[in-house]
Amino acid sequence: MGTGPRADRGPRPSRPVAPDSRQLARQRRRAHPPGTPAHVRIGVEGDAAVLRVRDRGPGLRDADLGKVFERFHGAGTGSGLGLAIVAAIAQAHGGSVAVCNPEGGGAEFTVRIPVVPAIHGRATQK
After folding, report:
1. Rounded Cα distance, 72 and 118, in Å
2. How much is the average pLDDT of 44-64?
3. Check: CATH 3.30.565.10 for 23-116?
4. pTM of the predicted model, to two decimals?
5. Sign of dihedral through CA atoms 23, 86, 13, 10?
6. Nearest-CA neighbor of 23 among 101, 106, 85?
7. 94: left (phi over 0), alpha (psi -120 to 50) or beta
8. pLDDT at res. 16
C-alpha cells in the first residue's frame, strides 16, 4: 500500500464535509515532503460529523498552535490562507476546527460540523 492518506469511514453524515477535507488534504501536501504518511478519519460523534486528519510530520510549534487558523499566519510554506479557509468553511456550517500535536508526533486537525437530520433522503434545516 502507498503512504498517502487512508480513510476510515464511520456512519455517513447527512451533510457532506468534502470542502473541508479537500482543503485539509491540500494543506497537508504543501506542508510535508512527498511520502509523508497521513491518516484521515470521517465519522459521526454525537450530533456532529467529524473529520480528522493526522500526519506523521514534525507537528506544529507551540507558538503556532493557537494561530494556524488566522489569516496570513503561515506556519509553513504557504500564504497563511489555507487553514483560515478551512476554519471559515467549518464556521459557515455552524461547526468548528481544532489542532493539536498528539502523543507520538505529527499534528491532528479536527473539523466538526453539526449533523442535519435527513428525512426521506433530503437534509432539513433545524
Report:
1. 37
2. 88
3. yes
4. 0.67
5. positive
6. 85
7. left
8. 46
Question: What is the Cα–Cα distance from 86 to 1, expressed in whole angstroms?
Answer: 28
- Strand partners for 109: 53, 99
Residue 81, burial from CB neighbour count under 10 angstroms (0-12, 13-18, 19+): middle
What's the pLDDT score for residue 97?
A: 94
C-beta of residue 37 within 8 angstroms of C-beta of residue 2: no
Per the DSSP assignment, residues forming a β-bridge with 113 are 49
Beta bridge partners of 98: 110
Q: What was the pLDDT predicted at 101?
A: 94
State the CB neighbour count (10 A cutoff) for residue 107: 24
For residue 13, count other CB atoms closer than 10 A to its CB: 20
Listing DSSP states for 4-58 in one string gives S-EEEE-SPPSS--HHHHHHHHHHHHHHS-TT--EEEEEEEETTEEEEEEEE-S-
**In whole angstroms, what is the distance from residue 99 CA to residue 108 CA?**
6
